Predict the 3D structure of the following.
Amino acid sequence: MKTLVWVEHDNASVKDATLAVVTAAAKLGEVDLLVAGQGAQAAADAAAQIAGVGKVLLADDAAYANALAENVAPLIVSLADGYDAVLFPATTTGKNVAPRVAALLDVAQISDILSVEGPKTFTRPIYAGNAIATVESSDAKLVITVRGTAFEKAATSGGSGTVEAVSGTGDAGLSTFVSAELAKSERPELTSAKIIVSGGRALKDSETFKATIFPLADKLHAAVGASRAAVDAGYVPNDYQVGQTGKIVAPEVYIAVGISGAIQHLAGMKDSKTIIAINKDEDAPIFQVADIGLVGDLFTVVPELTAKL
Amino acid sequence: MKILVPVKRVIDYNVKPRVKSDGTGVDLANVKMSMNPFDEIAVEEALRLKEAGKAEEVVAISVGPAKAQETLRTALAMGADRAILVETDAEVEPLAVAKILKGIVAEENPGLVILGKQAIDDDSNQTGQMLAALLGRPQGTFASKVEIEGDSVSVTREVDGGLETVKLSLPAIVTTDLRLNEPRYASLPNIMKAKKKPLDTKSPADYGVDIAPRLKTLTVKEPPVRSAGIKVPDVDTLVNKLKDMGIAN
């Protein structure tokens, strides 16, 4: 089977979630990559170093600068003839583009796969991860999005892919990129961090959240996350949200502070290796999944913990 | 301008889904069903655009069983003007729903179609993007802000790194994220009024769409359970545990 992986990149390097997609694709067969962007040669060169990849197709055109689905989807469709499966990371960008490709190819998309069970059989979460479905496709061509935390990341070196330029399909003229307000942080990215400190609604307000959670995170060189309740209450921006409708994370250590453990939050972090919960309510559902729990007032416990680390 | 809002009848978001013991699916017998939460946000956004004078009519659509009428009546009670039920007892995959919606768009010529970004049952997150593809129109997915400006719409999107704004030429497809708005509750008088609003019933065949599934569900299982660990009495014990794990010095 021949597979094509759409690469998410920042023009210089390949994003981590894509490395997990390469691992998933390799379970199906040969892996080629597509790097679409403007001035993305360096990203294509980096992609060629990923272990196990064959060709790296580079489509360098202003139309692909911001990964607009209206422009990227026709490009992928134009290349799809030579492939049995096209795979994307289940990131916001991948989820935006993939169904557009699937519909143009007239195939069903298999969303957010957790494992490859056979050439056309996969597992995927449904009902916010409260059930796992095994599905088999009857389509000739597969369009798949891959949950990044469910597969090991492919090595970023040792590969000997060849970069090959492909011609683009141009600007569809339907949409334009206006602006992006991307959070800048010295801390690690949520989805690739080894340690995450997350805060919930119990943190009271934005100031208290920052004063309580940030020092602990900085001491541990951890990323900062939040529950939906904390994001909805405006303590931190939406890109901090961990959960079914936010980011799915699986760090080595997840420290949940003042988070009760709603189903939709657990869906986003329950694959973490070690979960530590700090909550004053000893009956909070978070303790049912935590490896280590500490019942106590976070406003005394967290500063004490930060000081003693 | 007319706005179409497709809505789906799903398990209520407060209900914990139970997997059937024979592994064929999730047990929906005698379970409370509601409008998909992201679709409520879509209805609300359409109504706000109408109230702001940007749209004249809001049409709610559902593809599903006869009982999806209740979901449509909820949309009508919130303020939608009329509704279309494309009735089928079969489970309809996102691609087939998108094809049915394409047929309705051809008849209704809306300026905007606003959908929830995903349904909380199958969590596919596909229908809006697929509809945009089939229509050859632009898409603004995971919207946290929607502003109509003449013959285009500006959509602020919730993306992994923060927010991104795109400008789409109309007609366009928008899918909603959680922070776009807070949906209103239907008042009792409006619930009564909704009973008299027009609701047309159609079938997938009316739009010439083959709804045969492309994916076969082989099994549905409970996820692996995580067992609770230990409770520590104080911060010092926690610090020692962290040291044992090598994440503190």
